[in-house]
Amino acid sequence: MTDTVKKRNWFQRLFAVRGMGQVITVFFGLIVLCLVFYLINPNFLSQRNVANLLRQIAPYLIIGIGQGYVLITGNIDLSIGSVIGMSTMISATLMTRGMDPWVATLVTMVPCLLTGLLNGFLVSACKLPPFIGTLGTMTIARGVAQLVNGNMNTDAIGRGAEGWRDFLYYGRTLGIYNTFWIALVIWLIFNFLLSRTRTGRHVYAIGSNVEASKLSGVNVNLTTIKAYLISAFCAGVVGLITCAQAGMGAMDAGTGYELFAVAASVIGGISTLGGQGILLGTVMGASVWGAMYNGLSLVGAPVAWRNIVVGIIVVLSVLIDVLVRSGTFNKARIRAMFSKKI
Amino acid sequence: MKKLVALFLTLALALTGVAALAEEFTVYLITMDLMDQHWVNVDAGAKAAVEELGKEGIKVNYVWDAPTQGKNDAAQIESINNAYANNAQAILLASNGPDTQVATIEQYAKEGVKFIYVDSPANTEAFQTLATDNKAAGQLAGETMLNKLTEMGVAEGNIGIVNVNSSTTSTQLREEGFRAAFEGTKFEILETQYGEGQVAASQTIAENYITQGVVGIFGANEGSTTGTGNAIKESGKDVVGVGFDQSDAILQLVDEGALLATMAQNPYVMGYQGVLSAVSVLQGKEIVGDKNYDTGVTVVDKAHIAENGLLAK
Question: Which among B34, B35, B87 has CB closest to A43?
Answer without folding.
Answer: B87
